[in-house]
Structures are given as C-alpha cells and as structure tokens.
Amino acid sequence: MQKIRAAITGVGGYVPEYVLTNRELETMVDTSDEWITTRTGIKERRILKGENQGVSVLGIEAVKEVLKKTNTDPAEIDLLIFATVTADMTFPATANIVASAVGAVNAFSYDLGAACSGFVYALATGASFIQSGMYKKVIVVGGDKMSAILDYSDRTTCIIFGDGAGCVLLEPTTEEYGVMDTELKSDGNGEKYLHMKAGGSRIPASHETVDKKLHFVYQEGSAVFKFAVTNMADVAAQIVERNKLKSDEITWLVPHQANKRIIDATASRMGITEDKVMMNIERYGNTTSGTIPLLLWDYEKQLKKGDNLVLAAFGGGFTWGAVWVKWAYDTK
Ligand SMILES: CC(C)(COP(=O)(O)OP(=O)(O)OC[C@H]1O[C@@H](n2cnc3c(N)ncnc32)[C@H](O)[C@@H]1OP(=O)(O)O)[C@@H](O)C(=O)NCCC(=O)NCCS
Fold it and tell me: How far is CA 220 from the centre of its chain?
C-alpha cells in the first residue's frame, strides 16, 4: 500500500484592523519604541476591539478564506482543530463555534491547548488523521486574542503579544509532499515561568482573583527567553539532522514569532541566512498559536511546490516542536 501523506493545500488568515503601535504603548506604560524594537523586533500588533468579540471571530474569517481559496464545500470538512489559549469560553470549544459558523456541518471539532506551540501540535495531530486514511479534509486553525488576557499596565508582557489567526487545509496525497516529519516535546516544569494563575479549576474566578490581577499572562521573560533559544533551536536541528536535510536544502525556516533575537539564534544554529527566515513579528507581535499559520499566509505567494519548510515553535507549558513540510502547490 502506498504511504499517504497530509499535504497543505491552502492557507487562510485574518488579523483585526486596529493597529496598536509602539508609540501608542509609550502613552500607556513606561516603555519606548526604541526599547521594544531592539529587544523584541516588534513595531506594532493588531487588536480585536468591540464587545463580545472572541477569538472565534478571527478563526471564522481565516477558515472562510481557506474554503474560498481552495473552492472547498464546507460540508466536506471531516475535522476542524483550533489551537488556542484564549478560547471564547471554557466550553463549548471554539472549534465547535467556528465549524458551525462556516457550515462545516459534517465535521467534528475540538480545541487544542499548547500555547505558542499550539499550531505545530495541531498540524501534527491533524496530519496523522489524514495519514491513517481516516479523514480526507482537515482544517487546522491557530489563533489567539491575547489582548483579552494582557495587563496593559504591565510593560513586560503587554508589548509582546497581539491578536490574529491563520489556518491550513490538509488533504491526502501519495506523492512526496506535505507533512514529512514531526517532533513534539513538553515539560510541565515550565509552568512557573509562564502561566495564567486564575480562571481555571485550581483557582476559579472570584472578586479576589480580579483584584489581584490573576487573570493575565504571567511571564518571567528572561527565563522563558533562555529556554526558548535552546529548545526551539534544538528541536529544529533534530528534525533537520534526522532527515539529513542540508541547510541549503531548507527553503524556509518558519519560526514562532516571540522575539526576533530568539528567531535569529535559531536560524544561526541551523546555518540559515536571514533571507530564508519567514518573519512578520514587526507587524503582528506574538499572536501565540497564530504566528506560524500567519507566516504561511503572508508568504504563500512566494512558496513553490517542493520547497522544504521547517516550522519550529516554543511556548508555555513548556511546549516545543518542529515540523518538516514539503510544500505541495504553486500559488497562481
Ligand atoms: C520579555 C523580553 C522581551 C524582555 O527582554 P529582556 O532583554 O529579557 O529584558 P529583561 O526582562 O531582562 O529586562 C531588562 C530591563 O528592561 C526593563 N523592561 C522590561 N520591559 C520593558 C519595556 N517594555 N520597556 C522598557 N523597559 C522594559 C526591565 O524592567 C529591566 O529593567 P531593570 O534592568 O532596571 O530591572 C524577553 O525576555 C523575551 O522576549 N522573553 C521571551 C518571551 C517569550 O518568548 N514569550 C512567549 C513564549 S513563546
């Protein structure tokens, strides 16, 4: 029997209209455009404004786009996975809301939480359903509305994150394209460095948790930075070495957009020059589960059939992982 692979056959994305610039942040916290730019590479990020606007709003637009671009009938979608840490509600899953809104009436759907590694985890998961022969059309979404869980008086976190979502459609192929290899890791000891303290079952929401600002991202930035640099580069190097990919055979490094300095360190460890590194951190900041599909969305027109992409991510958990993808189509 021929091996079935999961090919990415389309990309969708959506970022909200409102642009929060470093200059505007200067008016909110004690920071400067110069500090943010040199320490992170971020110039601006998008924010989803308005009442009752959850991350599903971003996901729905991204999924609608991929369905339209690939001329896919939503009723043909078998499965929709939504990677996010900012679900509309604890339940139902945001994936259920999105699937229903786009007319994916025959799909089952669920959320996946792996923080900034959410999209690579979800891509690996979605791909395995295709590779097993179980399903024919799977949509993998990654997106977050980080503005919902940021303290805009904390200069160490509010400058980093933004809102956005992207997605891919996965379909089977017997050719040598698609998700070729994956490597995923996690270590719960990372909890102390990056988490949100309240609102879950350990510390449910109360007046006290609100007063103490426990519903926001808590991060020990420099510790996270050190783990991210080492682990993202390690896992990317591992997948490259295991598959005997030479650095000149890698067309694109597609790294999670947390900090330009982490991205540069990963690229340098892999011997990849800056022109082969996808980057949009300056425009969107860190959209958590959204960064990697938004990169694919931004760069789609430059991608050619047969290009080797190495996706690499690191995030809360800690979670980290890398995926080798052979691009399956030329964009007309
Ligand atoms: C958060 C991060 C940008 C901070 O950069 P850093 O170079 O590590 O800076 P530090 O935390 O060591 O702080 C250095 C100084 O800058 C200050 N500072 C922090 N945020 C600032 C801001 N927005 N503006 C101005 N100064 C700031 C600190 O208070 C500190 O001042 P001090 O030396 O007087 O105490 C960086 O650590 C980072 O990117 N970490 C990883 C984040 C990440 O990947 N998170 C998501 C997981 S995927």
Answer: 21
**Beta-carbon neighbour count of residue 243 at 10 Å?**
13
Give tens-digit pLDDT for 259-300. Answer: 999 999 999 988 999 999 999 999 999 999 999 999 999 999
Strand partners, 44: 21
The reported pLDDT for the residue numbered 2 is: 86
For the chain, first and last CA: distance in Å? Answer: 32
Protein residue with least CA distance to atom 10, ligand 1: 222
66: enclosing H helix or E strand: helix 55-69
Gyration radius (Cα) of the chain, Å? 19
Model confidence pLDDT, tens digit, residues 94-149? 999 999 999 999 999 999 999 999 999 999 999 999 999 999 999 999 999 999 99
Q: Is 224 in the pocket of ligand 1 (CB under 6 A)?
A: yes
Ligand 1 atom with the smallest distance to the CA of 259 is 39
The CA 167 to ligand 1 mean position distance, Å, reads: 30
48-57 core/surface letters (b: 16 or more CB in 10 A; e: else): beeeeebbbb
